[in-house]
Amino acid sequence: MQLHISPSMRSITISSSNSNGGFIDLMKIKVAARHISYRTLFHTILILAFLLPFVFILTALVTLEGVNNCSSFDCLGRRLGPRLLGRVDDSGRLVKDFHKILNQVNTEEIPNGLKLPESFSQLVAEMKSNQYDAKTFALTLRAMMEKFEREIRESKFAELMNKHFTASSIPKGIHCLSLRLTDEYSSNAHARRQLPAPELLPLLSDNSYHHFILSTDNILAASVVVTSTVASSLRPEKIVFHVITDKKTYAGMHSWFALNSVSPAIIEVKGVHQFEWLTRENVPVLEAVESHNSIRNYYHGNHVAGANLSDTTPRMFASKLQARSPKYISLLNHLRIYLPELFPNLDKVVFLDDDVVIQRDLSPLWDIDLKGKVNGAVETCRGEDEWVMSKRFKNYFNFSHPLIANNLDSEECAWAYGMNVFDLHAWRKTSIRETYHSWLRENLKSNLTMWKLGTLPPALIAFKGHVHAIDPEWHMLGLGYQNKTDIESVKRAAVIHYNGQSKPWLPIGFEHLRPFWTKYVNYSSDFVRNCHIMET
Ligand SMILES: *[C@@H]1O[C@H](CO)[C@@H](O)[C@H](O)[C@H]1NC(C)=O
Ligand SMILES: *[C@@H]1O[C@H](CO)[C@@H](O)[C@H](O)[C@H]1NC(C)=O
Ligand SMILES: *[C@@H]1O[C@H](CO)[C@@H](O)[C@H](O)[C@H]1NC(C)=O
Ligand SMILES: *[C@@H]1O[C@H](CO)[C@@H](O)[C@H](O)[C@H]1NC(C)=O
Ligand SMILES: *[C@@H]1O[C@H](CO)[C@@H](O)[C@H](O)[C@H]1NC(C)=O
């Protein structure tokens, strides 16, 4: 590459040897004599030394900002040239030439062994010293830009995955719903109305009613659980719902149920901060769990670092992230072990997870004879579905750990959370909570090597001997696990449970299983509509 300034300084030519040994003019700038000025020269030098880095930076910006349909190469001359070269005479020609040569290489394969300069200043330096022919130069330029774009794309992937993760735990629409309903709580007196009405308060501890307890920070999911329970009930006037949520969701959750009556059923919404019993003193292990350093890192750490992007699909990635969801250490999730203390006046309750849909009247659950046991649950080691229904203790615990091996039977059948009948009266006579606490502590001491995650494993130990198996038709599992779920069984089941990562409110939910859930989403609610929930 040569920069040639004519003796009369009437023209400046940037030329380069071509493969035939001759010179081709890469750029030619004619300068009218009268106008010779250092400024003109300056512009020319500018082109050489600065245009390319500029192109680079601007291209990067274009890529990042997503100005579409402008492959960076095409855009070069069109978008960037005129702006920079506008004041140089004959700039039209210059830009055209430049554009032409870039176009030439645009369609060519980049040679495999092409050595790329590390940076743009290096390219400029090499450009001055080496005798680059125009084509090599342009190819190098292009290869560098493509490499740069690739890097941007990879960082985008990481960013997308992060977004995906965020979206997985709280999709935008559900977050929006929570924000808007919280707003409504402060601006609309009706949204703040007492729940239930004062004259109904005594029913909250009346054991002749059917008490359901639900603990969640997902308002939409809560609305589906409550709506489906009430809609499927033969005696909805007997239903009392106790919805427990965290402090940040309290106002929004309250607004929703204040504005969407579940009458004739009764509902109360409580924040964890409203339970006097829930103190650090009474819940010592949870404090320890949350502050344990390695746990914090495991659940809240950087999930993208270390992920192999080339062999990861969004669904697999989401599944990995799901397993590390902070929900496994959230108080809302562990709350179920404190039901006897949180509802001291109740004798028998049904505890529901937020990822279930109720399709049949559940009042017969209160008539099941638990035979003195505390927990009526479906077992998960027998059943037609060989994958979902094959869970024994060995699936949840590390039997290489001596404490586990000495205390548990690896073949013992596991049971499921999601829909449980709890006899709180019987529960209060046991030491289930203490057992739960002591095993949580042991697992912490062993650096979480006894079991990995979840509230189920310590409960499997704590409830040992206190479980009464109920008919599997009551509670069908696995709708968030796999695509093979049998639709006929889904239709028959009293309660369907989207356990697994493919929750029906997530983009990764299984499409053919979603309608059983969306059926109970109130799409005529302005809040649901305005937050564009589950629109496709
Ligand atoms: C990522 O996965 C691909 C395909 O399985 C493999 O070839 C590559 O070596 C992996 N990279 C890392 C850094 O593990
Ligand atoms: C737990 O991990 C810490 C640090 O990683 C280590 O010092 C300690 O020995 C481990 N404890 C057990 C019981 O493995
Ligand atoms: C299982 O327990 C053994 C013994 O404590 C331990 O060496 C091993 O790392 C544990 N496995 C897992 C997956 O935590
Ligand atoms: C799930 O299975 C159904 C029917 O077998 C099929 O149509 C659908 O494409 C599958 N979806 C996924 C995500 O695998
Ligand atoms: C759905 O929302 C509309 C509008 O807010 C309300 O009038 C209606 O009662 C709701 N339906 C149910 C089943 O909650």
UniProtKB/TrEMBL annotation:
UniProt superkingdom: Eukaryota
Transmembrane segments: 40-64
Cell location: Golgi apparatus membrane
Biological or metabolic pathway of the protein: Glycan metabolism; pectin biosynthesis
Gene Ontology annotations of biological process type: cell wall organization
GO cellular component terms given for this protein: Golgi membrane
Any one Gene Ontology molecular-function term assigned to this protein's record: polygalacturonate 4-alpha-galacturonosyltransferase activity
Keywords assigned by UniProt, alphabetized: Cell wall biogenesis/degradation, Glycosyltransferase, Golgi apparatus, Membrane, Transferase, Transmembrane, Transmembrane helix
Membrane topology of this protein: Single-pass type II membrane protein
Protein name per UniProt: Hexosyltransferase
Upper taxonomic lineage: Eukaryota, Viridiplantae, Streptophyta, Embryophyta, Tracheophyta
